[in-house]
Amino acid sequence: MVDEQPVTARNRRFPVDRHQGLSDGVFAIAMTLLVLDIKLPAGLSDDITNARLTAELWQSVRPSFLTYLLSFFVIGSQWMAHHEMFHDIRLVDRRMGSYNLQYLLVIAVMPFPSSVLADHGDLPVAVALYAVAIGLGGLLRARMQSYAVNNDLLKPSVDVAAWRKDTRAAVFFGLLFVGSAGVAYVRYWFAYVLWVVVLGGWAVLSRSGVWGLLRDRFARR
Amino acid sequence: MVDEQPVTARNRRFPVDRHQGLSDGVFAIAMTLLVLDIKLPAGLSDDITNARLTAELWQSVRPSFLTYLLSFFVIGSQWMAHHEMFHDIRLVDRRMGSYNLQYLLVIAVMPFPSSVLADHGDLPVAVALYAVAIGLGGLLRARMQSYAVNNDLLKPSVDVAAWRKDTRAAVFFGLLFVGSAGVAYVRYWFAYVLWVVVLGGWAVLSRSGVWGLLRDRFARR
Amino acid sequence: MVDEQPVTARNRRFPVDRHQGLSDGVFAIAMTLLVLDIKLPAGLSDDITNARLTAELWQSVRPSFLTYLLSFFVIGSQWMAHHEMFHDIRLVDRRMGSYNLQYLLVIAVMPFPSSVLADHGDLPVAVALYAVAIGLGGLLRARMQSYAVNNDLLKPSVDVAAWRKDTRAAVFFGLLFVGSAGVAYVRYWFAYVLWVVVLGGWAVLSRSGVWGLLRDRFARR
Amino acid sequence: MVDEQPVTARNRRFPVDRHQGLSDGVFAIAMTLLVLDIKLPAGLSDDITNARLTAELWQSVRPSFLTYLLSFFVIGSQWMAHHEMFHDIRLVDRRMGSYNLQYLLVIAVMPFPSSVLADHGDLPVAVALYAVAIGLGGLLRARMQSYAVNNDLLKPSVDVAAWRKDTRAAVFFGLLFVGSAGVAYVRYWFAYVLWVVVLGGWAVLSRSGVWGLLRDRFARR
Question: How far apart are the C-alpha atoms of C218 and D7, rounded to whole Å?
């Protein structure tokens, strides 16, 4: 306890380990439950030819497999960000714990929008539902980051300016995904294009030196 | 080992870490398994219109989603309380371990009453089953708290008076939920109203200063 | 590394933490997956009366719920024993790790015999399958205990005589359960009676002082 | 941080604990989810004879049980290798974390090819799918090992020559399994024979002294 206030149930602070443990459990299950959507059609006989099974794998299984890849990538990226965020956090109070649980709710629920997207990936409402789930995850993480920096929950070694910049980036990506839900109602594939362009562009920029240059610029503010 | 008694299998004491690890695993799975109840109707064709899918999401999926939200909130709150309780515990003996397993049984079983409530939320027996599960969780946690303080399992820094007060609160909420099972047989929605009023009132009171004042009063006893 | 032999891949020794972590994960899932067998009949309409739902809960759900209780108790007891065993283990080599994985295989598979027992608890083959699974778990744990004590994997503080005695008890219970599989073919309920008598007797004896007296006798050998 | 380069988001290094925790979660679930494929035929009545249930267990359940054994063995072996690998790793940077997530994707997806193999184990495409999944796992692990040694992520005590040799072995087994996918298209059982011969031969060699001699030879290079 670092502050002078009297310690009550509301402002008690706890180590991060069990928050990390519970989070890792939820992430691991959300990553793995998705695989239950990858399956052959239910009525398939055991006595089919190799050509038939190949066709089933290609036609029935491929869409859900591709969605699985997308979702694993998304949840995995969320885990990486969550992991890096909590690495910088020293203590967690009750409200921060609640925020983390709300964030985990979105992670845990991800298999449902993914499953809807796998079956109805060409319908705006399916794309929008998925986009809102992803975006909400980013926004809830941004709220945690913002709360942590404003309530003295970070380790002393953390670069607060870089932390705030990462928070703004999470807000930006969160709003972008939520916004792409609207775009999906114009043409459903507009949303896909938007995701690929933004995420792809971000990946390319961060691999090249350009992003670093922009980063340094922002960091200097 | 702090006491002078000879150490036998029955009074050996263990560190809390694996008890916490197993508990976090069970909590994470109980939180996440519930999402398997959120799904589109089984017979739904892949070639449906956007309007149809929207209607299905609203009519078929919304009830189970709302139950999921309720249950995630309940299990999440249980986790918070379990986390804060074990933070104050220094060692666990065999009986305490058994009590924790019994508590985890109730947590693990939660997806079933939640699923019944999602499908039949207007039937007294469904409401009562859910209420008993929640209430039993609170009572089993209270038993652990009571056992820990009476058997010298707490860390020296723990405020024993506050600990006993929390235990009484857990008993109160536990009995309230078990009692609401009876209320559900009068009118099923009486139980919902009771939960909302008590939990909502508690949340408001603990946010305002009133609860703190009452708390201080009790603590002084 | 405590011995003088050259260190190779086969005799390298590792800390116990990840073995414990993986084990806790498998235990938590095995405990929780079982709950998926507790469900209302698939064809049940959403518009049923309270009396009908009560009857369904009593007739269709109760058997699987009772099996769930039994299985949770069994897996929970296995976890307690596994936890206490690993608490005394200092290091794990590759073979010990393999033994633990084989043990976890039996734990992970437990939901299947439990599910068969829930549906066909009056058929000898269902009872026998369950008995063999439980018994095998005990025997594999005994093998780990035996291997650990014979290969210098225990902490120095461990009472080796008590450890060997516990190992013999695990072998005894393991053989008893495997043997009860045969008994089930005479009358299926003979096996249930045997389990209740032996486990109940053991619980009563260990709560009373009798067991302690016998224990001391054995320990003196 | 051991190097002189400026620390950026891309070259920050993190402790291994959460990577291990998430990995153990995914491994535990992948090991345990597979058991959901072991079940009695859906339409089976509750009022069947003992002979009928025995026949169902033998004919319907045995194939999926044997696949479960195979898959548990495979995932278990992967876990052992992952565990031993991470034991030697000191720090994880962002790219190493991504590689680990990609590896976990293959582990998490294993229940699907296993399930296909259980139902259609005599069709080349099912065997090939399984072989590619296993092989890919080995290759992705080899990539992690290679990256770790080339980017100074190992503990100082690690024998780099032995580490590189293990990496080559993982590449060899990975390519062998991917290659056996082609063999399955000649005769599906050629692949099974190949797996048994190679894995069996490796097990025998490593138990006898021969492997150690070869090992020493390679290590001297």
Answer: 62
